[in-house]
Amino acid sequence: MLMERYGQADLEELLLPPERIAPFPKAGDRSAWDSLPQGTRERWIGLAETYADYAWPAIRADDYRGYWTTGNLSRHMDAVFERRSVLGMLTVAECMEGQGRFLGQIVNGIMAVCEETTWVPPLHRLHTKRNMDECMPDPSDHRVELVTATTTELLAWIHYLLEEPLEAISARIRRRIEREVRARTLEPYMAYDDYWWMGFVEGARVNNWNPWCNGGALMGYLLMERDAAERARAVRKIMRSLDAFIFTYSPDGCCDEGPMYWGASGGGLYGCLELLGEASGGRIDVFAEPLVKDIGAYIYKAHISGDYFAAFADGDAKAGIEGDVIYRYGKSIGDERLMQFGASRGAGGPVIYSWFGLYGHLRNLFQEREREALGAKAPCVRDAWFPHTQVMTAREREGSEQGLYIAAKGGHNLESHNHNDVGSFIVFADGCPLFVDLGTEEYKAKTFGPDRYELWYVQSKYHNLPTIGGVLQRNGKTYRAKDAMYRQDDAAAQLSLDIAEAYPEEAGLLSWRRTFKLARGVGPHLAITDDFSLAEPPGSVEYSWMTPCEPRSPAPGRFRFEYAAGRWAELEYDAAALDAHCEKIDWMDDRLKGNWGERMYRLVLAERQPVAQASRTFTVRAGRSP
């Protein structure tokens, strides 16, 4: 896409020189920074004041080594994130205030980050495929990956924003930034073509790493590279790599990593395209391309209510996507609903222990009033269907969070951040979670290691799926759904697919057609029907239902779930054919609790007798107490 349009262009002529790339006012432009909303300025400056005497945390070799000795990653990464988020927050506050109060701490933070042995965290050694077994950091680890790219972004914009005040202290500060960015990002970026995320290696599958890493490199080259020929050569390579991401993206615009990762994948792509446009005076522009538009529209189509999104696999249900990039994306592609959705979500302020994307914060600050003036609410689209990824979403009525909502998926079990979840579903009622996809615990060594599928929450048993004779779904692209059929109208939305091939041969499945139907209008309800045929009756057939609501059985064949005060839903099933028992899951970690509360329940409906062929329908209806 980019190379097709601009691959033969003279990029030396097309790209503006670094001194003419000015998407944000520098710290010395007092009229611009003083014009920001007073409440915003007070929030940032007030937080910065709490770090006036901040002791920059040590990056301890023992914490780094802990990834190899205990599998713990958080102790090392907490210090890494804290350093960067405090440094970014102090920088913004200094630009807002302009009195030099925070400059000393900013210089301390710059030097602390620049003096780190490596910016590559232990986990990402697996992705760079170099020095993987060595438990001590070393400059030979310098490779382009997520933390390196984010750190480059942070330092590049500090270098831009605080040019005059840093030069007044010492010219060595900005030269140090330039030297470290060049050694850790720019030179490795151009030296290697075998980073899997670049998309140049045959068979390598790219994901959000591509725009994330390309974005950091792009910022470094656009803002710091003075050699016009080298700069053009690097941007050409970045565009070629971004094309690999675009061309391997799902043709329906669906982010198979889920909404939480859209901010770095679809949103990250937008940031790269936005900056390419800025750096070329608007002459590099692919926002009219249908796929680029669909990638943007996905994020409001996947929205359920409030902070909840239709998230499968590793993604958090509370995706934490801020509205600024969504709004800008919508504005660039002319999608009013995307703009409305971005405006409805607001934007986050400074957060400690985060990746702290300084570029995004700056864009947000100078578009805050425009976005808030729109005064929009989430569009809450009634129906969405992504035929390539086989994901359906449906709600009772357009524009409302009230009523029943379902998201269901087919696909395969080698999707990015995959869980074994072909045929699983999510149900909300009045914007509240009823039957859910758990997501993931905090990342650790095992999360992306060879034993990943031993993790309990990755297994199909802990998704809204059947287990046949104790046999679970298997991971791999051959384990997939087939024969998907979708339709929707004012009366109903329906998806039907055969999930038999998601299970290994020992399950004995001939077919397992699962149908999801959301009936609208009078007596709205959700019906999930399983029609199955097996080679012979298995020892057991169990249907799992994962819910944060404690199941209560008011009568045989019914379970009631109170999802909010005075509001409940009932699950109806054939009690003559199915037995029921419930497991309480109270061992969830803080990440899962942040999405769902203190505990989860696994309701299991099991065939009373061995059966080789049957049809079971489960019906969900919402109700209210008088």
Secondary-structure blueprint of this entry?
Blueprint: H1 2-6, H2 11-14, H3 30-34, H4 38-49, H5 61-69, H6 74-97, H7 103-114, H8 125-128, H9 146-161, H10 163-169, H11 171-191, H12 209-224, H13 228-248, H14 259-262, H15 266-279, H16 290-301, E1 303-305, E2 308-309, H17 323-333, H18 336-345, H19 358-365, H20 368-374, E3 383-386, E4 391-395, E5 404-409, E6 412-413, E7 425-429, E8 432-435, E9 466-468, E10 476-480, E11 482-488, E12 492-498, E13 509-519, E14 525-534, E15 541-547, E16 552-555, E17 558-564, E18 567-572, E19 578-585, H21 590-596, E20 600-607, E21 613-624
Antiparallel strand pairs: 1-2, 3-4, 4-5, 5-7, 6-10, 7-8, 9-15, 11-12, 12-13, 13-14, 14-21, 15-20, 16-17, 17-18, 18-21, 19-20
